[in-house]
Amino acid sequence: MKKNIILKLIAVAAILSCGGLVQASDFGLESLSAADIRSGQSYLKASDPRAEPDELIGVEMKVRVPFKALKKIFLMASVSDSSLSIIDPAAQVIGKSGEMLRISNINVDQGGIIMTPVVTLKPSMDGRDKLVFRVNKIKVHASMEPSLKGIPEPPIDQEELIGRIMDVVVKCIYTGINEKLKAKQVPLKAEDFLTIKYDKAAWALRVTVSHRLINEFFPAGLVGDFHLTGFSFNETGINLNVQTAE
């Protein structure tokens, strides 16, 4: 029994590190991969998939996502997506700005028009498993490649401008996470457990998460489905409250 409990705790820590949510070194699990976790599951006796809710293990935890980890996602995306580049690899891409989050230090290439945005977002929970990041302020510097100078660009209104920038940001978040999942041998794509959409009318980035990433590593019937129930941030990163349904 003691061995099973220890293995379950190791599994929780390893899952988060393999998903890129926390640093593996926080738990001394630098060498673990998703394949190691699945292999280790043979030591855990799987419960009946039809187990009653009150028979499942309940879990409540806080997950810290450092801004440095988020920057790595953008860096990984910029390698394979030419529409995004990082201006200064040593500087933050996402960080705290008062009560807001700020995205900066990136260039967005839209058909040869290079946009350098500074976007300030006000985040909040929008229900269980849902986050909304409302655009509070945006500043953009735009320039053209030499080959495009002299060619008139159709006028772009502010909503269209923000929409273009957010489309690139969303695409690159998916790309960066998928690159990290692939490197960690996790057989999922970001789209399987994460939905990110920009609501142009509301000037809001809407995010919905599912339990599929964490449940990928647990035998059926061992724990209940995980849900995002809280969100906060500080100078170093984002903090998420995650718990199984009661």
How is this structure best described in words?
This protein has helices spanning 2-18, 34-40, 67-80, 158-183, 190-193, 212-215, and strands at 60-66, 84-86, 94-97, 100-103, 106-110, 113-125, 130-144, 194-199, 204-209, 226-233, 237-244. The chain contains 6 helices and 11 strands. Helix 3 (67-80) crosses helix 4 (158-183). Strands 2, 3, 4, 5, 6, 7, 8 and 9 form an 8-stranded antiparallel beta sheet that branches. The protein has a 3-stranded antiparallel beta sheet with strand order 1-11-10. A hairpin with a 4-residue loop joins strand 8 and strand 9. The chain has one domain (2-244). It is of the alpha+beta class and 246 residues long.
DSSP strand count: 11
Q: Which structural class should the secondary elements be placed in?
A: alpha+beta
Provide the residue-averaged pLDDT.
78
What gap, in angstroms, lies between the N and C termini?
24 Å
Low-confidence stretches: 1-10, 24-32, 36-50
Helical residues, percent: 25-40%
- Using the alpha-carbon principal axes, give the shape: globular
Kindly estimate the percentage of residues that lie in beta strands according to DSSP. Answer: 25-35%
| Largest sheet composition | 8 strands, antiparallel
Give helix and strand order, one letter per element, not per position.
HHEHEEEEEEHHEEHEE
Instruction: Please compute the radius of gyration using only Cα atoms.
Output: 20 Å
| DSSP helical segment count | 6
